[in-house]
Amino acid sequence: MLCNICPHNCNVDRITQFGVCQAPADFQIAHMQLHQWEEPCISGKNGSGTIFFSHCNLKCEYCQNYEISQNGLGKKVNTNEFYELCLKLRNQGAHNINLVTPTPYSELLIKLLPEIKKRLNLPIIWNSNGYEKIEILKQFNGLVDVYLPDFKYANNELALKYSRTANYAPTALTAIEEMVAQQPDIEIDEQGLIKKGVIIRHLVLPGQIEDSKKVLRIIKDNFQDKVWVSIMAQYCPAYQALQYPEINRILNLDEYREIKDYFLNLNFKGGFVQDIDSTSNKYTPIWQLDSLN
User: Fold this and answer.
1) In this predicted model, what pLDDT tens digit does every residue of 179-207 receive, in sequence order?
2) Does residue 62 contact residue 161 with C-beta atoms inside 8 Å?
3) Which of 22, 135, 143, 151 has the fewest C-beta atoms under 10 angstroms from its C-beta?
């Protein structure tokens, strides 16, 4: 079967050839853990049952997870092993199953998630970069409880420069529209944990505050109070960022205050703003393949 599951439409047989994401035909996973550093309504007290997939269909020059997203660190697992990983997280007390960068493995997950949801009885979180196809997302209707997409850029020139991806903004907007159509209401339980809904993440890049404002304005104009927004201030230069002097630094305090004030003035129904002291690589997991055993 030829792979056209994301907007790149590579049309390759991943058994014999790699597309843009470089992902193989089978699952490849780099790490799993009870993640304590997601949004509070996701991590909760016990942690989010997070599975980090290898490879990515964006090529972000500053990716903090580049070892797995770009360099392909990871271990191939079959469908039975994948289910066992989910079961292990449930048995460890995970509040949810959090699938990080799952898009390249959509076709496998469409087949597996019905049984996983039935047997584990935990919310499924789709934690993606937002560069998705509607016709694929539609197949997850009823399978994904919480969508956690990025909205990285309003300016497509920035997307091309920093993520080597054309037409990002309208593609992400259309994808998120489908996510909101599937999960139009935020549902929080008595423990403060999210059970259903859409939370849109935006990573603020240094020197690009005006683009971040445009992203927030697009979200507000299109979704009003149907979504929550998570402003991520954790940017720390990594991977190829040193080649771009304008982003080869962390946010400064003035930038942080400006985007925080802008976000608050838009009066979203709910959301989060990371503290500026989160600009550290200490929040990047240490990739441990033995966690998959």
Assistant:
1) 999 999 999 999 999 999 999 999 999 99
2) no
3) 135
pTM across the whole model: 0.96
β pairing state of 97-100 and 146-149 = unpaired
User: Strand pairing partners for 190?
Assistant: none
Element (H, E) at 291: none
Residues 79-111 as b/e (b if ≥16 CB within 10 A, e otherwise) read: eeebbebbeebbeeebbbbbbbbbbbbbebbee
Coil, helix or strand at residue 126: strand
How do beta strands 75-77 and 228-232 pair? unpaired
Query: What does residue 182 show for φ and ψ, rounded to 5 degrees?
Result: -75, -40
Number of H helices, E strands in the chain: 9, 12
d(CA 81, CA 93): 19
CATH number belonging to domain 27-292: 3.20.20.70
Length of the chain: 293
Query: What distance in Å separates the CA atoms of residue 102 and residue 86, rounded to the nearest whole number?
Result: 14
Name residues whose C-beta falls within 8 Å of residue 210's C-beta, 6 or more positions apart in sequence: none
